[in-house]
Design brief:
The chain is an all-alpha fold. It has helices spanning about 1-20, 30-35, 45-55, 55-85, 95-125, 130-150, 155-160, 170-190. The protein has 8 helices and no strands. α1 (about 1-20) packs parallel to α5, α4 (about 55-85) packs antiparallel against α8 (about 170-190) and α6 packs antiparallel against α8 (about 170-190).
Length: about 190
């Protein structure tokens, strides 16, 4: 359990770092300052961003890696969420978690890493898109929801994992997670088709 907590805590920290690294230095007045003046983004001017934007094969490789990692991440999260909503009651949640969570955490690292490279190549265009901002906020909400679940209802999983219905807190976390991931997918497709 402690490994899962620290993995999720690291994810939240990484998400905060990602958001902060994309903000211009003069955005001290808040995150909306970055949207109103995206031209000061230091992140987009770095060598990594240029390397990606100048090499189509590298951008395609990173985009494919990002999408595949994201599919594994969302697929794993949704399997656990559906279990929290009562499907697959015969599968002990701890066993499912022990199998799924390490895979999800690896996919998080891969998706965030590839996403940062892609962001570096297109920061000026992305930072001004509402769908991008919403996607980042939803990813942060997903991480917070997971932290609350693993530090709350999951702490007593041994008592309820074989019950007909998980406690309401666990069910709420699963439902909220599913809704967040649907919204993240919607925002991602809006970013891609804008």
């Amino acid at each position: 359990m402690k490994k899962q907590f620290w993995g999720l805590a690291a994810f939240v920290g990484l998400m905060l770092t990602c958001v902060a690294s994309g903000l211009p230095a003069h955005a001290a007045s808040g995150p909306l300052a970055a949207i109103s003046n995206p031209s000061g983004l230091a992140f987009a001017a770095n060598a990594l961003g240029r390397a990606v934007s100048e090499r189509a094969w590298l951008e395609n490789l990173l985009l494919t890696t990002h999408i595949v990692s994201f599919v594994v991440l969302v697929g794993g999260a949704c399997v656990v969420d559906l279990r929290l909503l009562g499907l697959g009651r015969r599968i002990p949640l701890r066993d499912l978690n022990n199998f799924v969570v390490p895979i999800v955490l690896v996919s998080v690292v891969t998706a965030v890493s590839s996403g940062l490279w892609l962001f570096g190549a297109h920061a000026d265009a992305l930072i001004g898109r509402p769908a991008f901002l919403y996607k980042m906020l939803l990813l942060f909400a997903a991480a917070i929801n997971a932290l609350i679940f693993y530090t709350g209802p999951y702490q007593s999983v041994a008592k309820w994992e074989r019950d007909d219905r998980p406690p309401r807190g666990a069910q709420a976390a699963g439902l909220l997670s599913l809704l967040i991931w649907v919204a993240v997918i919607f925002c991602g497709q809006r970013i891609a088709h804008h």
